[in-house]
């Protein structure tokens, strides 16, 4: 089970952005399910942005979480750490 620890100060957490590597964009690894954010539930807590191993979620303080599918691998970790279950894994179309 994942233990969620809220950040002390979101503004001071250093984050990087994904770039295309020699194997292409990591979103190509995602084959079955993708995460979808229900913005009506999102509380802008930033946990999904911090815990996403692909660094492909950005949380806007007003608009909430958005996912960069070019780099999302579909691991589902964001669904586990979201405290209000605002992210669901849905089948790829
Ligand atoms: S499924 Fe994994 S890679 Fe994709 S946004 Fe969620 S935590 Fe990041
Ligand atoms: S973890 Fe959930 S509530 Fe928090 S910013 Fe991400 S989607 Fe929104």
Overview of this structure, please?
- This protein is of the alpha+beta class and 93 residues long.
- It has a domain of 58 residues: Alpha-Beta Plaits.
- It is 11% helix and 19% strand.
- The protein is built from two helices and four strands.
- A two-stranded antiparallel sheet has the order 1-4.
- It is globular, with a radius of gyration of 13 Å.
- The termini are far apart.
What is the annotated CATH architecture of the domain at 36-93? 2-Layer Sandwich
The CATH topology annotation of the domain at 36-93 reads as Alpha-Beta Plaits
Strand fraction:
15-25%
Order of helices and strands: EHEEHE
- What does the overall shape look like? globular
Q: Can you list the ligands bound to this structure? A: iron/sulfur cluster
Q: Indicate the structural class.
A: alpha+beta
What is the averaged pLDDT score? Answer: 89
Order of strands, main sheet, comes to 1-4
Unreliable spans: none
Characterize the biggest β-sheet: 2 strands, antiparallel
Q: Which radius of gyration do the C-alpha atoms yield? A: 13 Å
CATH class of the domain at 36-93 equals Alpha Beta
End-to-end CA span: 29 Å
Number of separate helices: 2
The helicity comes to 10-25%
Q: What is the β-strand count?
A: 4
Give the secondary structure arrangement, pairings included.
Blueprint: E1 33-37, H1 47-51, E2 57-60, E3 64-67, H2 77-81, E4 87-91
Antiparallel strand pairs: 1-4, 2-3
The protein binds iron/sulfur cluster (2 copies).
Quick synopsis:
Strands 1-4 form a two-stranded antiparallel sheet. With 93 residues, it is of the alpha+beta class.
């Amino acid at each position: 089970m994942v233990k969620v620890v809220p950040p002390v100060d979101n503004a001071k957490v250093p984050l990087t952005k994904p770039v295309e590597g020699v194997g292409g964009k990591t979103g190509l690894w995602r084959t079955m399910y993708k995460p979808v954010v229900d913005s009506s539930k999102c509380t802008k807590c930033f946990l999904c942005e911090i815990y996403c191993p692909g660094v492909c979620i950005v949380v806007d303080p007003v608009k909430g979480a958005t996912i960069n599918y070019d780099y999302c691998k579909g691991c589902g970790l964001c669904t586990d750490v979201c405290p209000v279950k605002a992210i669901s894994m849905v089948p790829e179309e």
